[in-house]
Amino acid sequence: MKKYIAAGLVAALMSSVAPASAATQIEFWHAFTGRLGELLDEQVAKFNASQSDYTVVATNKGNYSETLNAGIAAFRAGEQPDVLQVFEVGTATMMAAEGAIKPVYEVMADSGLPFDQSVYLAAVAGYYTTTDGQMLSLPYNSSTPVLYVNKDALKAAGLDPEMDLSTWEMVGTALDALKESGSKCPLTTAWQSWVHLENLSAYHNVPFASKENGFGGLDTELSFNGDVQVKHIDTLGQWAKDGKFIYSGRRNEGGAPFRAGECALFTESSAGYAGVKKEATFDFAIRPLPYWSDVEGAPQNTIIGGASLWVLEGQTAEEYKGVAAFFNFLSSSDIQAKWHQDTGYLPITMAAYEATKASGFYGENPGTDISIIQMTGKAPTANSKGLRLGNFDQIRGIIDEELEGVWNGAKSAKDALDSAVSRGDELLRRFEQANR
Amino acid sequence: MEKRVVFNNRWLPYLLVAPQLLVTFVFFFWPAGQAIYQSAFIPDPFGLKTQFVGLGNFEYLFGNRYYLESFFTTAIFSVLVTVSSMSFALWLAVLADRVIKGSSAYRTLLIWPYAVAPAIAGVLWLFMFNPFTGIIAWMLFQVGYVWNHNLDGGQAMALVVAASAWKQISYNFLFFLAGLQAIPKSVIEAAAIDGASFWRRFWTIIFPLLSPTTFFLLVVNVIYAFFDTFGVIHTITQGGPQQSTTILVYKVFADGFVGQDLGSSAAQSVVLLVLVGILTVVQFRFIERRVHY
């Protein structure tokens, strides 16, 4: 209470000294550097130029983990920013922090500005929405995994470069031919847990965890050791043994050999498009993520990765109004369409998708709309809405470790997934305990 | 006559050591106390609520098979880093000590790697050994050896040991060289006149006379391997594959700063605190006896 009185006094003092037209500052901490950082700064500059009531100050705080840590440390010290960019695996941590965050639907309602949740792509916004449909954070950069194909490599293996690769069975045949023709790297992947377990589960409409993948409560338990997942990992393990699937690392290390033309097929985020387009000297194509044709209901829809913007508690009403105005600006279809086309991230509204379509962008850049089609083809189910699991960054680490055991032949797929589930569940219980 | 110099003022000596005590307290005892205090709680990341669990965090840790294995990994890692960096540095120091022409140039060049930050050292080694694009990985492939430290735990361990030890060689080299130069030439020359070979002179004169330096470096290197190497591990392996390079201090970092599990992280710090305390006592009790000053 004392803090608020003091803050109020300071604010009163400031307003009496400063000219009435001074803009309210909105602090925005993010994790973008390089090209993405430039594009973000561009958006902020546009917003600041578009009106005079608020000034958004964007600051880079390192990578995703470092940004989240900076936000948490600042909150503990009472110096938190208004807006914090948090990656999707931090969602449960932020959600559980009642008293530290101000849900976006509340910020928008308080501001009195128009806010219609239905304009957002359900498959994107759903990840950041409560089970009763309230938006907690604003989706900012979202992507989904797709299959990148080196057409020249397929040709070299005597395959039709336009061949159908929509199912894993077909991919298997292509891998046989590639291996036979002497390819050193027929298939590799980025973000193995995200692509080959999290998205695999959603795409085949099987649960990754109980309680609607964690949306329904903290007492959720992992369940990605089901038949579909075991079959998939077992197949990949076999391919790894035969030299058809090459493991290149836990993050997106596989990007470098694919862009250099060494790998024929590559499963990676749709946001990897800009990099491939810039560096690849071969003919490439983007295809939907393959699925297993013998699983009923597949393909469902894939889920997103990326980050969203969270509003932190403890700021003035005036600042929240500014945040609401900024969020409305970010959601506008011009800004979203440009962001989508520049980065390969998904647009967050249907209008931005339509605008991009109308501009002829998809015609000039074939395959860039596959991610959206893949995500919006079917209405999300409880299994494909997203994941909301505490300590998920660490659980992914465990999954990585166990999968490595499969790739190097030390463990069977079933053993590895069972072990990952039981180790992950321990972390979920720990998260539940910390947030009781 | 009393030969010792004695302060007449009772408070002056305390006043004189006060700044040092203050620094020690603020930067060492206070954080250590905080770690011990926090290890009894499970807080949420934002510090909004916290629960007292007593020894619960320790029970959780020691009930975890992977945490226990991490002790073993740490032991292997520390021994390998310490032995390889010290022996290599000693070899270089002995060689540099015998160089007459341009010796200062050699010495300066050998000291440079110390200025490289651990994370950068990690990245440099990672570039060379990248299974797809690394030059050394490629050379190994040419002679028929497949290098993929993403999957092979032994290779991953070898790589992080090499990167960590390489960085420390310079530091060790500096001290060994200074130690070698402090050994009276006359002793060595006398032995040479008596017909002792280089190796005999080394083992019977130089190595024993160098033992205070060696002991000091042993302590410093073990502490280095325990605490300062996580940057290398973070950039090269992130503790993988399958935890084969997860040393204790890396787990503290990963659980605390990646996992936001501050209770467990604090408990692990306390365990490390105790472990290093024991290790230091052992070193001074048992190894120092064999040191000739």
Provide a quick synopsis of the model.
Chain A is of the alpha/beta class and 436 residues long.
Describe the 3D structure:
The complex is a heterodimer of chains A (436) and B (293). Chain A is of the alpha/beta class and 436 residues long. Chain A has two domains: 2-142 and 304-364, Periplasmic binding protein-like II (D-Maltodextrin-Binding Protein, domain 2, 3-Layer(aba) Sandwich); 145-302 and 390-434, D-Maltodextrin-Binding Protein, domain 2. Chain A is built from 20 helices and ten strands. Chain A has helices spanning 2-17, 34-50, 64-76, 91-96, 104-111, 122-125, 151-156, 168-180, 192-203, 210-213, 227-241, 255-259, 273-279, 317-331, 333-343, 350-358, 361-364, 370-376, 392-407, 413-434, and strands at 24-30, 54-60, 83-87, 101-102, 138-143, 145-150, 185-189, 263-269, 284-287, 305-312. In chain A, helix 9 (192-203) packs across helix 11. The longest helix of chain A has 22 residues, at 413-434. Chain B is built from 13 helices and two strands, in the order αββαααααααααααα. By secondary structure, chain B is mainly α. In chain B, helix 1 packs across helix 13 and helix 3 (65-98) crosses helix 10 (211-228). At the A-B interface, helix 3, helix 19 and helix 20 of A face helix 12 of B.
Number of strands of chain A: 10
As for the number of domains of chain A, it is: 2
Strand content of chain A: 5-15%
Number of domains of chain B: 1
Proportion of strand residues of chain B: under 5%
Class of the largest domain in chain A in CATH? Alpha Beta
* Spatial extent as radius of gyration of chain B: 24 Å
Helix content of chain B: over 70%
Instruction: Encode the helix/strand succession of chain B as letters.
Output: HEEHHHHHHHHHHHH
Let me know the average pLDDT of chain B: 89
Uncertain stretches of chain A: 8-20
Strand order within the widest beta sheet of chain B: 1-2
* Major protein interface: A-B, 42 and 35 residues
CATH architectural arrangement of the largest domain in chain A:
3-Layer(aba) Sandwich
Helix content of chain A: 40-55%
Major beta sheet of chain B, specifics?
Answer: 2 strands, antiparallel
- Whole-number mean pLDDT of chain A: 91
Per CATH, what is the topology of chain B?
MetI-like fold
Distance between the termini of chain B: 30 Å
Order of helices and strands of chain A: HEHEHEHEHHEEHHEHHHHEHEEHHHHHHH
